[in-house]
Amino acid sequence: MAAFSESLEQWLRSNQPKTLDSVSTAFREKSFAIIILVLMFLPALPIPTGGITHVFELIVMLLAVELMAGRRVLWLPRRWRDMRIGKFMESKTIPVLIGRIRWFERFSRPRLSNLLNHDLFLRFVGFIFLLLALAAFVSPPFAGLDTLPSLGAVIIALSLILEDVVLFLFGWLVGAIGVGIIIGTGGLTIHFIERLVHS
């Protein structure tokens, strides 16, 4: 059986259009996790995106709600299904993603795969994806605060694909730290504004 990184690279080199629908068709069994992995990778990079990734995060939130509802076949509006990933994602971002996946594949192996495929657990994972995507969405543009929640979502999605509970725990930890930083920064900002108003 080919490694996931090889399958993703074959899809990238194929002639089929690089849309979310083609990802779903090529990777039916793991389509939820793979689309979330691809969409959250760009905001996970430590580069300013200027809010351009908000559409990606909205799609991930919709997919997360579907997971929470128990769906195993993803549904997206046709406009989103036919949305092309984009030349930058296709030529730059996804090749970098494939390299990162290969690094994880060197150390990962199936661990508690039955748990990761259990219906109740996947509903819980959907809730986590929703929180992480929402945290990335509300982060101020150019602040870089969306990086850790997005990275947590990427690692958790990869844990579902590689069926490794250790990766899931690592992704959950990274995402939780990111959400904590966003909440803490928001609290400090509100406190600072209150002091300015009352001074």
Number of helices: 10
Structural class designation: mainly alpha
Q: If you average the pLDDT, what whole number results? A: 82
Shape annotation: globular
What is the terminal-to-terminal distance? 66 Å
Instruction: State the total count of DSSP E strands.
Output: 0
Which value, in Å, is the CA radius of gyration? Answer: 17 Å
Task: Tell me the series of helices and strands, N- to C-terminal.
Answer: HHHHHHHHHH
Low-confidence regions: none
Largest sheet: none
Strand coverage percent: under 5%
Helicity, in percent? over 70%
What is the number of domains?
1
Question: Can you offer a commentary on this structure?
Answer:
- With 199 residues, this protein is an all-alpha fold.
- The chain has one domain (4-198).
- It contains ten helices and no strands.
- Helix 3 packs antiparallel against helix 4, helix 3 (31-44) runs antiparallel to helix 9 (147-162) and helix 8 runs parallel beside helix 10 (165-198).
- The protein starts with a helix and ends with a helix.
Keywords:
globular, 10 helices, mainly alpha, 199 residues
What is the gist of this entry?
With about 200 residues, this protein is mainly α. Helix content is about 75%, strand content about 0%.
Topology:
Layout: H1 4-13, H2 20-26, H3 31-44, H4 54-68, H5 78-81, H6 87-107, H7 113-116, H8 119-138, H9 147-162, H10 165-198
Helix pairs in contact: 1-6, 2-3, 3-4, 3-9, 4-8, 8-9, 8-10, 9-10
